[in-house]
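R.M. (postdoc): so does anyone remember the format we settled on? I'll just put the structure tokens first.
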């Protein structure tokens, strides 16, 4: 048969030992002396042995009582530790945040800094193109999102990312320069296409790019050009700047927005801004 000891019974035992008697223990616990006696008796019935020598004065513990006191102190400390940890967990701010896949390289650095600088914040991150992330923020599916070239009704501009051309494949006869871009709803890809057309460049999109990693890989392999953050060749040594004049002027700096859901709590707005700054650290962003 399972036997469990209530923590309050162990607290009563320690009070009797530390106060030197039942009467003083009752005073310290703000209960009556009969209540203390009943709780000690209940404890003895659970452990099935006396914990005090009742016939001796001053009050003395039995060998079993001395052993129980040692474990009682440990159990009470453990009880306090559990409550402190759970309370701390419940008091943490929680945040669900989206990040444009173009800034995904900054997530590792952000998580390291977040753990060191804001341990009270639990942050769940999701990456995607900016347009679908903007929809999720507007619908309240996530609390906030760091977006490239896409804004929502409740958003603030953090600055503009400086871009440059990278890659140097030979033009394909009759088709022009191969360009690596994500296509679809990628705001950056549209910006690249508009810039190339404005510069009078004949170009075509290579078909196999599904994320920034494959875009960079295509450029590193010498298969295509694209526009990336102007310091990309420093972060990724295999990437080389496009020779001047091949694609014309680089795309203009592109806006970065921090979008907030309509129901985002004011208590976490500053935390969201801090997380965004951590992600963008090292990215060439001009002030708004």
């Amino acid at each position: 048969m399972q036997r469990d000891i209530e923590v309050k019974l162990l607290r009563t035992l320690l009070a009797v030992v530390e106060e030197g008697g039942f009467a003083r223990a009752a005073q310290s616990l703000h209960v009556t002396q009969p209540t203390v006696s009943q709780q000690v008796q209940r404890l003895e019935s659970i452990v099935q042995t006396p914990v005090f020598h009742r016939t001796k004065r001053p009050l003395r513990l039995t060998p079993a009582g001395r052993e129980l006191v040692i474990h009682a102190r440990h159990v009470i400390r453990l009880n306090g530790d559990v409550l402190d940890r759970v309370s701390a967990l419940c008091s943490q701010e929680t945040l669900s945040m989206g990040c444009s896949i173009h800034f995904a390289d900054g997530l590792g650095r952000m998580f390291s800094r977040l753990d060191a600088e804001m341990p009270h914040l639990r942050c769940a991150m999701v990456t995607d193109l900016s347009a679908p992330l903007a929809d999720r923020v507007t619908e309240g599916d996530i609390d906030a999102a760091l977006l490239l070239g896409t804004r929502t009704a409740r958003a603030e501009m953090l600055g503009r990312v400086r871009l440059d051309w990278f890659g140097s494949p030979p033009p394909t006869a009759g088709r022009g320069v191969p360009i690596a871009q994500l296509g679809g709803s990628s705001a950056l890809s549209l910006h690249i296409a508009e810039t190339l057309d404005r510069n009078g460049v004949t170009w075509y999109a290579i078909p196999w790019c599904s994320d920034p990693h494959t875009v960079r890989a295509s450029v590193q392999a010498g298969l295509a050009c694209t526009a990336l953050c102007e310091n990309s060749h420093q972060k990724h040594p295999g990437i080389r700047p496009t020779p001047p004049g091949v694609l014309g002027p680089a795309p203009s700096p592109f806006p970065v927005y921090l979008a907030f859901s309509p129901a985002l709590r004011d208590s976490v707005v500053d935390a969201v801004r801090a997380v965004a700054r951590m992600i963008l650290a090292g990215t060439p962003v001009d002030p708004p």
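R.M.: ...and that's the designed sequence above, right after the tokens. Also worth knowing: The domain at 7-90 is CATH 1.10.10.10 (Arc Repressor Mutant, subunit A). The first strand starts at residue 52 and ends at 53.
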